[in-house]
Design brief:
The structure holds two protein chains of two kinds.
Chain A lengths: L8 E3 L2 E3 L3 E3 L21 E3 L16 E4 L2 E4 L7 H13 L6 E5 L4 H18 L3 E5 L10 H4 L2 H14 L4 E4 L7 H10 L4 E4 L3 E4 L1 E2 L4 E2 L5 E5 L4 H14 L4 E4 L5 H10 L1 E6 L2 H4 L3 H15 L15
Parallel strand pairs in A: 3-4, 3-16, 4-7, 7-8, 8-9, 9-10, 10-15, 15-16
Antiparallel strand pairs in A: 1-2, 5-6, 6-14, 11-14, 12-13
Chain B lengths: L4 E14 L2 E7 L1 H6 L5 E5 L10 E4 L2 E3 L4 E7 L3 H8 L5 E8 L11 E7 L6 H10 L3 E8 L8 H7 L2 E6 L6 E2 L2 H10 L6 E5 L2 H14 L2 E5 L15 E5 L10 E5 L6 E3 L8
Parallel strand pairs in B: 8-9, 8-12, 9-10, 10-11, 12-13
Antiparallel strand pairs in B: 1-2, 1-7, 2-6, 3-4, 3-7, 5-6, 13-16, 14-15
Helix pairs in contact in B: 5-6
Chain lengths: ~300, ~270
């Protein structure tokens, strides 16, 4: 039996201790989870999505539970990039875990300015990479509009690529006819990796009041309910592109994470499960290691895309 | 913010105190030690993915000596139904204590506590602490009808003066608990602070009364919640921003879970 299997994976220039990353919007700015886990044990952290200016977000109710999942419509409430740099990043400097900033914008110029700002402080403040959100379903402008059109995807990613040498992960939306064309556009534009999926658009109705349960009417569905969809899309994108794929969508136990890795994910992001069990990331890291040991696999990379058909 | 524990705790007792309303005690020494009146715990009610999310429930009583906490809850959905079906000695996965808690001013002599329906849940611990600090405490309980009046005896045992209002007049004062509050103020019992928890229209009306009478007013709010630790920004409410130079009232969304659940009544924007 393998004593100490290798869990390290590489995404562009980033070396991750293990393939487990926190998903944007589900892990705050990291500090919120420090009472529960050692942030040093994570593969990487993706922080709450950031915009150039602070964003107030959508009116409540913003979250509603659905069978084995939840709908959210937060509307990208965030402190803005300046306060992120001043108030949130200093705390994370003491940890030896890559910090990935998820960025959103209404215009290409905003994405570019965000990438520039974060590039300037990347060494001092420990910004390791960027995850470009072109897939948020809950904002009126920008957001998902970029990620549902291959040409728009190419334009925005290529503009950011020309701005920054930081590793670029592009986060894709599942709300498209053919995710492969969007994935290809992102790769051609210079993305270093793709992460998928963001949430699926959905809604829920209160039958007594006949009003939508979310103030924003629609929201993004996440949680175990979306896992089969996410897995299928990861498998398709894995077969289409030559850059690493990061699997996201309903991962709540180690078996889910392993399914994504076998389907082709070099790393995985854990989202909604953080709300249910704040220690889930660590439990999944330990679970992956145990699986590799028990199956005599000496390197997690051997497992990536190893689905037998 | 205090430290939030996540632990598996034992259910020590369970009692049905009114139709669909249960009182449960838990062995949770660490949480009991740190807990403040007004804080809550976040409970995983199911073993699997349905319901997926935890349920936030107010800490009803805190027994630091025995290391026990109590919750008082109403069955309103799948989560609370599962919780009510748990039996003694069952393990319960909880996180807590969470939130800011009520702020009892040292200089306050008289405290008025107003609970509507299951809204009495966080107020018993507050009543106990107020009395421990030597305050004179009045408690007003509002309910639809007599069978739904919760907690009257528990407050009385602590030494509070308790009055009840029922909408249908089946027990004590007939009418809204906010009308009863106004009557008591008119009769001359003026509190230094009012604390309340209950339906939003009730909380809003008390806010107006507190403003007119210039009494400090703190409310415990609730909102649909996911993480309970300030990360997801799901459970927000509209809170006025402090900038006094602006003519127009400005607001921001604050998290009920860790910025609250207790807010000053005058900073909450109620018009929704």
């Amino acid at each position: 039996m393998i004593d100490k299997p290798n869990l390290e994976v590489q995404i562009a220039e980033m070396k991750l201790k293990n393939p487990v990353i926190t998903a944007s919007g589900t892990f705050g700015y990291g500090e919120e989870f420090s009472p529960f886990i050692d942030l040093d044990k994570l593969g990487a952290m993706v922080l709450k999505g950031i915009t150039l200016k602070p964003k107030m977000g959508n009116p409540p109710p913003r979250v509603i539970e659905t069978p084995s999942g939840m709908l959210n419509s937060i509307g990208l409430q965030n402190v803005g990039v300046n306060r992120l740099i001043k108030e949130k990043l200093p705390y994370l400097k003491k940890f030896n875990t890559p910090v990935i900033i998820n960025i959103s914008g209404d215009t290409i110029e905003e994405y570019v300015e965000l990438a520039e700002r974060l590039g300037e402080v990347s060494k001092d403040m420990g910004v390791t990479g960027l995850e470009v959100n072109i897939s948020c379903p809950n904002v009126k402008k920008g957001g998902m509009a970029w990620g549902t059109d291959a040409e728009a995807t190419y334009k925005v990613i290529n503009s950011i690529r020309k701005t920054t040498p930081l590793p670029l992960i592009v986060k894709l939306t599942p709300n498209v006819t053919d995710i492969k064309t969007i994935a290809q556009a992102a790769e051609e534009a210079g993305a270093d990796a793709l992460s998928l999926i963001n949430t699926l658009v959905g809604m829920a109705i209160d039958i007594d009041s006949r009003q939508p349960k979310l103030a924003n009417i629609s929201g993004g569905l996440s949680g175990p309910a979306v896992k089969p969809v996410a897995l299928w899309l990861v498998w398709q994108v894995f077969q289409t592109v030559n850059i690493p794929v990061i699997g996201i969508g309903g991962i709540i136990k180690v078996e889910d994470a392993l399914e994504f890795i076998i389907a082709g994910a070099r790393a995985i992001e854990i989202g909604t499960a953080n709300f249910v069990n704040p220690r889930i990331t660590i439990e999944i890291i330990e679970g992956i290691e145990k699986y590799l040991r028990e199956n005599n696999i000496k390197d997690v990379n051997e497992l990536v895309g190893s689905m037998k058909i | 913010m205090s430290f939030i524990y996540n632990s598996k705790v034992k259910i020590l007792s369970k009692e049905k105190v009114a139709p669909n309303i249960y009182l449960m005690s838990l062995k949770a020494p660490e949480i009991a030690q740190d807990a403040l009146p007004g804080q809550f715990i976040h409970i995983k009610c199911s073993k699997d993915n349905y319901p997926l999310l935890r349920r936030p429930l107010s800490i009803h009583r805190i027994d630091k000596e025995k290391g026990e906490i109590f919750i008082l809850f109403q069955i309103i959905g799948e989560g609370t139904k599962l919780l009510a079906n748990k039996t003694i000695e069952h393990d319960l996965d909880i996180m807590g204590p969470i939130g800011n808690g009520f702020n009892i001013y040292p200089e306050s002599r008289k405290i008025m506590i107003v609970g509507g329906g299951i809204g009495v849940a966080p107020l018993l611990a507050l009543c106990e602490e107020s009395i421990r600090q030597g305050k004179e405490v009045g408690v007003l309980i509002g309910a639809l009808k007599k069978e739904l009046v919760i907690g009257e005896e528990s407050f009385k045992i602590l030494g509070a003066k308790v009055e009840v209002a029922t909408d249908d007049g089946s027990y004590q004062y007939k009418g809204l608990v906010t009308d009863l509050l106004e009557k008591i103020i008119r009769e001359g019992w003026l509190a230094d602070q009012i604390f309340a928890c209950g339906p939003k229209p009730m909380l809003k009306r008390i806010s107006e009364i507190a403003l007119q009478t210039n009494i400090n007013y703190q409310v415990s709010l609730e909102e649909r919640m996911a993480c309970g630790i300030g990360a997801c920004l799901g459970c927000v409410c509209k809170i006025k921003t402090k900038d006094k130079r602006e003519y127009k009232v400005k607001y921001e969304y604050k998290r009920v879970c860790v910025d609250g659940p207790v807010f000053t009544g005058s900073e909450v924007i109620w018009d929704d």
